[in-house]
Amino acid sequence: MNIPTQIIIFGITGDLSRQKILPSLFSLYIEDRLPEKLSIVGFSRRNFSKYDIEDFVRNVLPEHERREDFVKLFSYIAGDFSYLQSYMRLKDHVERTDLSFSQCSNKLYYLSVAPLYYEMILTSLKESGLSLPCGGDLGWARVLVEKPFGYDIHSSKRLNALVDTLFQKEQIYRVDHYMAKTSLQEIIDIRRDEVIGARWNAQYIKQIRIDLQETATVEKRGEFYDSLGVVYDVGQNHILQMIALALRPIMEKENASDIQHAREVVFESLSVDREFAHRAQYEGYRTHANVPPSSETETYIDVTLYSALEGFVGVPIRVVSGKGCPKSFTAVTVVWKDGTESVFETPSSESQSAYKKVLIDCMDGEQAVFTSGREVELGWHIAEEMKRVIQQKPLELYQMYSML
Ligand code: BG6
Questions:
Q1: Which is it for the CA torsion 283, 385, 355, 159, positive or negative?
Q2: Cα 177 to averaged position of ligand 1 atoms, centre (Å)
Q3: Which residue among 1, 175, 251, 393 has its CA within the 20 to 30 Å range from the CA of 112?
Q4: What does the pLDDT average to over 163-188?
């Protein structure tokens, strides 16, 4: 763990970086869980100086006696993602940092940009030589790619094929931070209990309910969100991961690829109920910046899925998710036929610790909390089916923070 490391963040000034990545890195820094020799580089279009990036990071973070030391770790390279020259400047910068470390360092490239840039960035990382590890296991080069991985099934397939030609499998980490939420992972521990495990099937379970309800609205993310809606923003990924925790086969001993495969098996087994489905949009959504005034994008869905997996046939999996909901509530609930419920809730405060785990697991080369290429493609397949089903339904309107 104590190998010099450089973390290069693409889109460092974006929302996700401000809200999750930078605070998580800072928290890890305070806990002394990051390598001692560390450099964090912002790579974005804005014309920032070192002074500007330091100021930017300082303003994002809470007051702390170690904040200034952390801020000093940052540097910045301004560059257009579409020019190879920008990457060559970045390469020159990271190589100079390696010289100052007197050692080949680990390189972690964090892609926190819109998915339409992924192909371009991944190709340029390869062409510039930035993704070439300088020292095997010591001195690796890894790429963390944020969700959504692609914007539909075709683009995700194209991206996966590209990734396969450009990188080694162990260099790519596709993020879905819901897999790093420990309160949700508890479902697997509970299912391992002999008594509960024996009852975890259609004979005893009446319904599985997945809630990802947020009071938050789309705020400043209007343009990004409007191209996705609930289904592609959280349905294609977080919600499917919650379903996988409830249904996936469990083995006594599992490695990362066993776990990824078990999730793939669940995704393959899912289908969407065509009858019971609702979609809605909160009043005022169309007035957000960069949302078209006639947008038909759903901000709320209530759909039911079924699995063909042995043991779960006939159990409705009801998914309720939206923005501008009366309360924030994210949980997997098992409704038992005896009338009782088991609720596995994840508090929103867990988001930051999940991002910390994403960063640490990537640095440790631990793939279990990351999605496989196949999971992503299957995810898009189901999400597209969900979208087709709900688009047959009228778009209802709801008042923000009111019950539908
Ligand atoms: C993100 C979505 O992936 O997850 C957001 O893009 C959503 O729209 C967020 O708000 C929810 O994550 P968490 O950890 O806050 O529940």
A1: negative
A2: 9
A3: 1
A4: 95
